Amino acid sequence: MFPKDEKLDWLELRKLVSNWIGFVADYMSFIMSIRPDLKDQEAVDDLKKLESDIANATEPFLTYEETLQLQNKIFPLILDWNPDIEDQSRKFYNSLVEMARLTSKSKSLKASYEPFKALKEREEKFELARDVINNIQNSVNVFKPSTIEVYAMFYGLITTTPVVHHSIFTQYKKSLELFELDKKYDADFIFSVSTNFKNREDKIRSDLRDIRNSIAHFNFKLQENEEGHPIVVLNLDSKTKPKQIPLDEFSWIYFNSVFLLQTFLAIQYWHTSFATLRGAFVKKRTCPKCKKGNLFIGNTKEIYETRDEPTLHMFWFCEKCEEKFPFKN
Ligand SMILES: [Zn+2]
What is the Å distance from ligand 1's center to 278 Cα? Predict the structure, then answer.
């Protein structure tokens, strides 16, 4: 689960992981600014403390249980904070976990799976995209946007979609094919904010890209519908019926598309942070049976298909004698 350059030294590693943890903490603060009812300052403070503990760590200092406790606090918040994108977020996360599990079992997959290359390369553009998004978010009247505000959202879609969507989506779709998980997880559905959006070829595809394309290529019109309400008409040169979207619904699509991509970014950072955390910052535990091997955490397949408490599907196993131990004893 480490980035490709696996021989990171300790100093580099702790800088990288503390940065990722910091990113997740900031994202949680962002969520709470939108959903004050979910406010959990303690979880953010815990993460901030972890960020600084890791930045100064001289040796592994955590127990597995501590990482799990923390993850259980953060997990529901990041995945479920927005009901409109919860299903997509869960599927996205589950598929990353499955890919990580398959990677750990196959050398050739390990060599060809590089989820963080694209993320690292585009970090600077992500920052710029986030500034644009935040500015628009702070200035637009979501419920009754003016024409100029709609143009601002158009600009936001045109500039941020290729940066964020393209780098995450393209990489993700390729990875699903590589792991033969593309039948189980539909990348186009996962990267859509409305489930019934069909493109000009009448196929269900990620709607974000299609909406962005029709705006960028001037295949849209701002007008009023028969009742006099302002609407956006997309795909004007379509052979099929153009899509009419009332302006307030368009704001909803716009903001959810932004939230979806940002949440996926946070999920990726968070997933890698925790995998790396467990690989490098958790104290080793010796097998009580053979007293020689180190213990590792394993899990059953059911863990990906349920919303049970994850520890119900986890166990310790010894790398030497292969004995399994229940997770809680
Ligand atoms: Zn053993």
Answer: 20
